[in-house]
Amino acid sequence: MKIAIVCYPTFGGSGVVATELGIALAKLDHEVHFITYKQPVRLDLLNPNIHFHEVNVPTYPLFLYQPYELALSSKLVGMIKKYKIDVLHVHYAIPHAYAGYMAKKMLEEEGIHIPMVTTLHGTDITLVGNHPYYKPAVTFSINNSDIVTSVSQNLKEDTLRLFRIRKEIQVVPNFIDVSHQKTDFTDCQRELMATPEERIVTHISNFRAVKRIQDIIAIFDTIQKRMPAKLLMIGEGPERKPAEEKCKELGIKDKVIFFGNSNEVDKILCFSDLFLLPSERESFGLAALEAMVNKVPVISSNAGGIPEVNNHGISGFLSEVGDIDDMSKNAIEILKDDYTLEKFKQNAYHEAQKFDVNVIVPKYIALYESALAIT
Ligand code: GMT
Questions:
Q1: Ligand 1 in reach of 151 Cβ (< 6 A)
Q2: Is 178-355 in the same CATH topology as 2-175+356-374?
Q3: In the chain, which stretches have pLDDT less than 50?
Q4: 184-213: pLDDT as tens digits
Q5: What is the spatial distance between Cα 88 and Cα 294, in angstroms, rounded to a whole number?
Q6: How far apart (Å, rounded) are the C-alpha atoms in residues 45 and 39?
Q7: In angstroms, rounded to a whole number, what is the distance separating the alpha carbons of residues 187 and 184?
Q8: Which side of the chain, N or C, has fewer Cβ within a 10 Å radius?
Q9: What pLDDT sits at residue 181?
Q10: pLDDT 10s digits, 230-282
Q11: What local confidence, expressed as pLDDT, does residue 51 receive?
């Protein structure tokens, strides 16, 4: 099959999932064309089945806002015709499903039928898409997609609650390539980060308010009062600076390392003992799954789709959003001795297998096949 994928090329979860999906499809001998404004951060162009087409938006002084959707839909028309694409898969409804629909209509005028699969990722529904300024366009684009998927059951329910959706929504959870995940680094270099007796606690995100970064600092503060520990903070975003200030104020600056964005997530998780994800909202929590496959148990909130990923009492623990005391208590429970930690580590890895690429990607392929059957 020839598949065009539209996504955000950034470190955000939706872009990561779209990229990993494209890579998995290419390995299965499908021809994959990424169409976006920059090469996706995790995309390796060495596979001959993977192609990247950049969307350029020429600036024009009359425009206060440059029309990306227009440029994207025009680029889609060109690429779908040129490469005889079979299926268009857009990740994140805004504005990708909208631009995809326009491309579909333009191609229809030329007698070309292109089925469109739209995958909803979370904030496109619960945060941004739900805003009255966007809602009619988002509703329209979802209802006019040929197939709609959501990354968790919880996101499906949120979508049906918040929008008037006529289309059936299929749940296709996010996935991870378990076999590709390196859990046996010989160069793990834990000693660069911490002393042997220190526990390593990690958080990875885009540091937006929804991630409740201050809760992470508070939980870690309690942990480090009970045992020697380090906190590794990976990612960039508006909440990073206030978090750094808080660490200074608490006198734990030397125990917390802020890395910024990193392409070495696996290596960092390799020497981590615990992952914190106390988010206000989370449609799935891909970062938690990435931690689990690297044998890192998860302390998280029970928001959104997280309970579909983090199995309470098995791969970690769930608490109410903002219940820092419960999260701290649970974190200490996991970290208290090597035996308990090892048990949770093995369980986390075991739970992650449910989301292996070989289990999930065939579900997308089956949906592409049914989309192709729609005329
Ligand atoms: O919140 C993020 O980390 C970024 C955001 C995105 O749009 O890329 O992530 C959303 O999609 C991910 C992939 O499906 C999910 O794992 C995240 O839970 C979801 N974020 C939220 O719902 C807040």
A1: yes
A2: yes
A3: none
A4: 555 677 888 899 999 999 999 999 999 999
A5: 32
A6: 9
A7: 9
A8: C
A9: 63
A10: 999 999 999 999 999 999 999 999 999 999 998 888 889 999 999 999 999 99
A11: 95
Q: Where are the alpha helices (DSSP H) in 227-298?
A: 240-250, 265-270, 286-293
pTM of this structure: 0.93
146 close to ligand 1 (CB < 6 Angstrom): no
CATH superfamily of 178-355: Glycogen Phosphorylase B; (3.40.50.2000)
Tell me, what's the pLDDT at 143? 96
In the CATH hierarchy, which fold is given to the domain comprising 2-175+356-374? Rossmann fold (3.40.50)
Helices (H), the chain: 13-27, 68-82, 93-109, 123-126, 135-143, 153-162, 213-226, 240-250, 265-270, 286-293, 324-335, 338-352, 357-373
pLDDT at res. 11: 75
Task: Determine which residue's CA is closest to atom 7 belonging to ligand 1.
Answer: 14
Residue nearest to atom 23 of ligand 1 (CA): 282
* CA of residue 253 to ligand 1 center, whole Å: 28
Residue identified by tokens 């986390």 is 348
The answer to whether the CB of 210 is under 6 A from ligand 1 is yes
**Beta carbons of 318 and 329 less than 8 angstroms apart:** no
Short-list 333, 339, 176, CA closest to 269: 176
User: Rounded to a whole number, what is the distance in angstroms from the first to the last CA of the chain?
Assistant: 17
Joined tokens for residue 10 = 């950034």
Is 275 in a helix, a strand, or coil?
Answer: strand
Report the atom number in ligand 1 closest to the C-alpha of 304.
22
Position 118 scores a pLDDT of 97
Q: What backbone phi and psi angles, to 5 degrees, belong to 50?
A: -110, 130
Query: Could you state, in order of their start, the residue ranges of all structural domains in the chain?
Result: 2-175+356-374, 178-355
The pLDDT assigned to 265 comes to 87
Q: Is the distance from the beta carbon of residue 40 to the nearest atom of ligand 1 less than 6 Å?
A: no
